[in-house]
Design goal:
The structure holds 2 protein chains of 2 kinds. Chain A is mainly beta. In chain A, 0% of the residues lie in helices and 48% in strands. Chain A is globular, with a radius of gyration of 13 Å. In chain B, the strands form 3 sheets. In chain B, strands 2, 5, 6, 10, 11 and 12 form a 6-stranded mixed β-sheet that branches. Classes of the chains: A mainly beta, B mainly beta. Chain A binds chain B through residues 31, 33, 35, 42-43, 45, 48, 50, 56, 59, 89, 91, 93, 98-101, 103-109, and chain B through 33, 35, 37, 42-47, 50, 52, 91, 93, 97-107.
């Protein structure tokens, strides 16, 4: 079946603008994760969704970052008033299980450049 | 707190050489999972292997093998007879049994030259 898909693949924006990044998880996967990959910071966890439970937002770097997951499937990560340090590749992953062994399958990422 | 360290930031080998990528982790959990992912130039993270903390048996999959040693908190990855297509960034990651997110190491960039 189809893997995790993300859109857009590349996004260039001006400082101060808002951006929305989209993730379509693998069908049937109940858990969805957002990570950020940037130079100097490596791969960082941002937020996690599982079913109808409240999301784990412990990795969000500031209140400019938010995410939602509609209908337990598609997720949107929103960054408000973007800053240059937000430039990174934003990766989405999904998994079948909440805990234990479920490996996470990653999408191709969205490369965000803030000018 | 959890931490994963990949001390080798970059390794360069010639095709057909064997290469070992090191991974050392820290966790207070007794049950946890360890992963290796490959990130080729295309950018997508590709799952390679998962290991749980109760299974120290080494695993071999084709040219890939993994050595998990709980006593030294290490989960090393060896590629035998490396090929140019193995060139990528390899990430080791740790996940607690009850937790949700992966803690990644900094990655090791492997360059295999023909």
């Amino acid at each position: 079946g189809a893997g995790v898909s993300q859109s857009p693949s590349n996004k260039v924006t001006e400082k101060g603008k808002d951006v929305e990044l989209r993730c379509d998880p693998i069908s049937g996967h109940t858990a969805l994760y957002w990570y950020r990959q940037s130079l100097g910071q490596g791969l960082e966890f941002l937020i996690y969704f599982q079913g109808n439970s409240a999301p784990d937002k412990s990795g969000l770097p500031s209140d400019r970052f938010s995410a939602e997951r509609t209908g337990g499937s598609v997720s949107t990560l929103t960054i408000q008033r973007t800053q240059q340090e937000d430039s990174a590749v934003y990766l989405c992953a999904s998994s079948l299980e909440l805990a234990g062994e479920g490996e996470q399958f990653f999408g191709p990422g969205t490369r965000l450049t803030v000018l | 707190a959890q931490k994963v360290t990949q001390a080798q930031t970059e390794i360069s080998v010639v095709e057909k050489e064997d290469v070992t990528l090191d991974c050392v982790y820290e966790t207070r959990d007794t049950t946890y999972y360890l992963f290796w992912y490959k990130q080729p130039p295309s950018g997508e993270l590709v799952f390679l292997i998962r290991r749980n903390s109760f299974d120290e048996q080494n695993e071999i999959s084709g040219r890939y093998s993994w050595n998990f040693q709980k006593s030294t908190s290490s989960f090393n990855f060896t590629i035998t007879a490396s090929q140019v297509v193995d060139s990528a960034v390899y990430f080791c990651a740790l996940k607690p049994n009850a937790g949700n997110m992966l803690t990644f190491g900094g990655g090791t960039r492997l360059m295999v030259k023909p």
